TrEMBL record:
The lineage of its organism: Bacteria, Pseudomonadati, Pseudomonadota, Gammaproteobacteria, Candidatus Kentrum. InterPro entries: DNA/RNA_pol_sf (IPR043502), GrpII_Intron_Splice-Mob/Def (IPR051083), RT_dom (IPR000477). This is Reverse transcriptase (RNA-dependent DNA polymerase). Coiled coil: none annotated. Residues 1-101 form the Reverse transcriptase domain. Keywords: Nucleotidyltransferase, RNA-directed DNA polymerase, Transferase. Belongs to the bacterial reverse transcriptase family. GO terms for molecular function: RNA-directed DNA polymerase activity.
Length: 101
């Protein structure tokens, strides 16, 4: 998934998080983290989409947000390996790979 961390809507992250976290304080903290903004050449820019890269928290949020993708792939009988925005669908032949696409 190209550009996943830069482009994932905050609403998708928060929806996935709400499925596994009930504590409103934690949810609020994560939402503030996502909207904290960045400094670009000394200029503050608000963040409305995406999640900061480089730390351990963003891959965790990606895994939570993409959990529904895991369920969808599994329901369709596809074997796969995924970590954050990187995944591989395992196929035994070309025809199976074409069908998976």
């Amino acid at each position: 998934m190209q550009g996943f961390f830069d482009n994932i809507p905050h609403s998708v992250i928060m929806a996935g998080l709400r499925r596994v976290v009930a504590d409103g304080n934690i949810l609020g903290l994560v939402e503030r983290f996502l909207r904290a903004g960045v400094m670009d050449n000394g200029v503050f820019k608000p963040t409305t989409v995406g999640t900061p890269q480089g730390g351990v928290f963003s891959p965790l949020l990606a895994n939570i947000a993409l959990n529904s993708l895991d369920w969808w792939l599994d329901e369709h009988g596809l074997r796969f390996v995924r970590y954050a925005d990187d995944f591989v669908v395992l196929c035994s032949n070309h025809a199976q790979a074409e069908e998976a696409m």
